[in-house]
Every structure is written in C-alpha cells, then in structure tokens.
Amino acid sequence: MQLFFTSLYTDIRALPRSVFILVLGQFLNRCGTYVYPFLALYLTALNYTAGQVATVIAVMGVGNILGPIAGGYLADAIGRQRTIVISLFGSALGTLGIYASVTHYPVLLVTCFANGFLSFMFGPAASALLTDLVPSERRLTAYAMVRLAINGGFAAGPTIGGILYISAPWLIFIGDAFTTLVFAVLAFVYLPHGIRSIQGKAGSIHVFLKSWKQALRDLATHNLYKQYLIAIFFMSLGFCQVFSVLALSTKGNGLTPSQYGMIMSLNGLLILLIELPITHWLKQFAPKRVLAAGFVLIGIGLLAFGFAENVTGYIAAMVVFTLGEIVALPVGMAYSSDLAPEKFRGRYLGLRGITWGLAGCVASGGLIIYDHLGASVWFIAGISSIVAAPLICLPARISRRRAIALNL
Predict the structure, then answer these.
(1) pLDDT in tens, 218-274
(2) 61, 80, 334, 401: least surrounded by Cβ within 10 Å?
(3) pTM assigned to the model
(4) Residue 62 contacts residue 113 (beta carbons within 8 Å)
(5) What is the residue extent of each domain of the chain?
(6) Crossing angle between the packed helical segments 245-252 and 376-393, to the nearest 10 degrees
(7) Angle 50-77/345-363 helices, nearest 10 degrees?
(8) pLDDT in tens, 272-287
(9) Where does 16-405 sit in CATH, by number?
C-alpha cells in the first residue's frame, strides 16, 4: 500500500507547473459553476414551459457542438493558451448575458447559444495543452488531477449555488462569471502557448476548411478513435440527463433546491476523495475494458434514479453513477489523447468535444420525455449508457502505420 501511494505521489510531483495552473483554474471555475445546474429550475420558476426549457438547453447544446470545431482549430492554429483565454473571457460575458436576457426568450436563445459555443471552445485547447506537456505514461494521472480539481469545486459549487439561488437567483450568474474571469487571468499570465501545427492565416476560411478536411481524412482511417467517439456518444446521451432532468426529477419528488444541490455535490465529493487512487490503480488494466465497466456502472446509476423517491434513493443512485464516472471518464480522456495524432491533436480533441456537445443537444429531449413519461426517461438513459460498453469492446482494425505510431 505504501509503495502504491509512493508511486502516485511520484507521478504527481513529476507533472509540470502548467498542469497545476490548469488544476487551480479548473477548481476556481467549477466552484463557481452555478448557472447550468440551476438553469432548468430558474427558467421553470419564471413560468417557461418544459418545451421552452428544453429548447434553451438544446440551443446551448448546439453551441456546445460548434464550439469545439472552432476551439480545436484555434488550438492548432493560434496556440492552446490564446484559445483558452478567449474561451474563458467570452464564457464569462455569455453568463452575464443569459441573466440580462432571461425575460426576452428570443434573445435568451441567442445568448445561451453564444455561451455554449464559447464555453466549449475551452476543452480541446486545454486537453491539447495538457497532452503537449505530459508524457503518455503520466497523462492518466494528469487528467485525474484536473478532474479532481473540477469535482473538488463541484463538491462545493452546487451547495453554494443552492444557497445563493434561495437568497437571490441573480447571484448565481455574477458568481459564475467572476470565477471564470479569474481563471482567464491565470491562463493569460501563466500558461504556455503549446504546439501550433497549422500554417497560414488563422482567420482565413480557406485555412480553416482545409485544416479540418485534412483532420477528417486522417480520422477516416483511425478506427480506434472512431470507435471511441461512437461509444462515448451513447454513454453521454444518458450521462447528460443528470445535469438537466435530475433537477426536475428531484423537485417532482418533493426535494428542495438545497437537497438537490447536496446530491449534486455528493458527486464531486466522492470524486475528490477516491478518484485519484482508483485511477492510479486502473493504469494496470486495458483501457477498453475499464471504459466498458465504467459505462455499465453509469448506466446502472441512471436506472436507479428512475426508482428513487426520496433523498436516500437519490443518494444511492448518485453513488453508483459517480463510481462509473470515476472509472470511465479519466481513462477515456487519457485514452483518446493518446490516440490523437500530434499534427491534428487540437482538432481530434475537438471531435471529442463535438461528440459530447451533440449528445448533450440530443439529450435535452430528455426534459420533454420527462414531462410526458416521468421517470421512464431514466430507463432510456441507463440503457443508452450500457449499450456503450459492448461498442467500446468491439475489435477495431488499424493499419500498420497507425499501430507503429501508437506503439501497439
């Protein structure tokens, strides 16, 4: 046991300083992520219908799809750090814009789209920078550290958000924007630019289209990465329901906003306490098998939400769901980063973000399903995630050139 934790400590100490800047920034940013978990409740309280709320989430999801297209390209064209800073500053302004436009539905749709777009520019650039800086054998630890920070903030964030929401709902928008701006300043001052692999004027449409055409042509021959994208799409269709439907599901069973915030915080707290050692232990297993196990656990947790009727039931479901997340997500992030060719790294990791965004957009329909069918939405979500397990385990043929590049 002592040898295990010594090995873990050695891996952490070997990480470059820039990784710890990302860790700190992600903690601050996620600690202030109040708007998204409470957006459905807030809009419902303003007498928006379930269909209107679903449309808002869907429009934000469309931004989530298009944001990684721009973010992946810019990460390779102007550098990781500049893309991160643009995304964070823009996201902070977008959050304030949502509050300013919340009583004007058409304008609200535009600002939610812009916020979703700008927020999701961040992911490909941050993942590409981390992959640039950290060798393959330590990437899983690095991603686990970032997720530790994200979920450490998330453990406190929804609880604080619930208190702010009860006091004055507008405070969640101010707090969210402020923490995002703090991270933007840290990124601007301390993060390196990272690798740039696209030549030519970054603002040129011709360069943009040509660069994505090259990346997609390469993806056409990369069966392992395509398999990963398909599997996480099905998993994330279910996964995303926790961050939209769960708020309404708990309310429908008589839970208060504070209790909902506590349940959401439990997710972050568990990850904070046990994800890092579990992730370090999982390094010894084949990534595909680990992903499959995680997808199944996530699915079981989602099914359990459908049977929950009180706080205890929701807590039990969240525990199982979180264990699946702990197993699958950091391994999936490291696995996909290892598969991404350096020349196309930002765009490949952008494809990962696009897949999550597309799933989130489609998953927004869960709000409408819940409005009509109630807890049955959790059955659909759970099965979708479980289906991802056999998909990731299917054999995938790769070329000799690709196998050599991946050290397979």
Answers:
(1) 999 899 999 999 999 999 999 988 887 888 888 888 888 778 878 887 887 888 888
(2) 401
(3) 0.84
(4) yes
(5) 16-405
(6) 140
(7) 180
(8) 888 889 998 998 899 9
(9) 1.20.1250.20
